[in-house]
Amino acid sequence: MTAEHPILDAQALKALGEASAPKACTCAVGACTGWESITEDRWPAAQMNRLGTLRSAPADPYAGADAEPTFEEFHPNGTRYESPNAPIAPRFFPYNRCDVLACSQCQHVLLKYTEFGGYYVDHRVRALQPNLVVETPKL
Predict the structure, then answer these.
(1) Of 27, 34, 96, 111, which sits 20 to 30 A from 87 (CA to CA)?
(2) Contact 129/95 with Cβ under 8 angstroms?
(3) pTM as predicted
(4) Which pLDDT does position 36 carry in this prediction?
């Protein structure tokens, strides 16, 4: 990742969210307080600016299990993946596979990753809620 699109940790992610001043937006993304599937034709790519990523490159790409980010989720209070109040934990799935973007029209900061299944590709988006960002111990 270049300096213009840095790898963000929980503290930097929270600061980005707190510094944004979102306005009402009528784009196709919508509120997305929990993870939502979004098709390519609905994603307003032209108005999205990439701010960074939560994906960290492995020190050794041949390190076996350490080369792949975890699929473990972080839900200490019984939330679930789709819960609007689920913690945003950058070291855990799906956040560890996200890019961080901002809409140039409404200034909403969004998290986006792509789920790859056996027969499908599903782009998913969640609005950054800085009050839900948590720093977790390293796995």
Answers:
(1) 27
(2) no
(3) 0.87
(4) 92
Cα–Cα dist 60/105, whole Å: 39
First CA to last CA across the chain, in angstroms?
A: 22
pLDDT score for 1: 43
What are the C-alpha distances in Å from 95 to residues 51, 56, 98, 111, 127? Answer: 15, 11, 5, 8, 12
What is the per-residue pLDDT across 78-117, written as a single tens digit (0 to 9) for each? 999 999 999 999 999 999 999 999 999 888 899 999 998 7
Distance CA 111, CA 33 (A): 11
Positive or negative: CA dihedral 72, 75, 79, 85 = negative
Let me know if 5 is exposed, middle or buried by CB neighbors in 10 A (0-12, 13-18, 19+): middle
Q: Which residue shows structure tokens 């080369």? A: 67
Q: Identify any residues that bridge with 36 across adjacent strands, giving them in sequence order.
A: 125
Alpha-carbon gap, residue 124 to 38, rounded angstroms: 6
- What letter represents residue 99's amino acid? D
Residue tagged 């890019």 (tokens)? 99
**Confidence label for 63 from pLDDT (cuts 50, 70 and 90):** low
